[in-house]
Amino acid sequence: MTTQPPEAERLHHLLDRLLRGVLLPEEREQLAVLVRELEADLHRYEEVVVGDLNEANIGLQREVARLTAGQCTHALAVCEQHHAVPVAGCPYPRCRAARGDQPTATPRAPGVVDLPDISNA
Question: At 106, is the secondary structure helix, strand, or coil?
Answer without folding.
Answer: coil
